[in-house]
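Hi R.,

Here's the chain you asked about this morning:
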Amino acid sequence: MIYSSLTQRLKDQHKTIASLIINLNNRQLNQHFRKGKWTIHENIAHLAKYQPVFLDRVRKILTMDEPEFEAYRAEDDDGFEIYCAFTTYELLKKITADREVIYQLINHTPPDKLERIGVHAKYGRLTIIEWTEFFLLHEAHHLLTIFQLAHGGVS
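And the predicted structure, written out as tokens:
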């Protein structure tokens, strides 16, 4: 069964991004603080690109018996570079639009269907609710990284 904190975070957590970057200019958004680490913009691109991946996974779990998924790595996804080419504003619009689709899907899926299983290569058998929790915790990790980069460049 879906619980209120999950629903609320699914609806609103992504809105934190705009609050974290509101006073930053393009140079700050694209500044590399450490070699081999993503910029703020690249973190946002990753979050934007992962939402359709998550949506696809949920849809597969709803229609297939225990589909298996590898851990997602942006570096292995050609689409990640395409997302990096969008402006930060365009990425925020994409995140908002895709999040609404995810929110509606999760909130309108019957409770028994939310118990369907997808198998993660590292974390094993997860229900759709657990996948959603994992999705939100992953996003929160990147929100913390964006906060750290916006306030001193340490991540």
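The beta strands are 68-69, 117-120, 124-127.

Let me know if you need anything else.
M.
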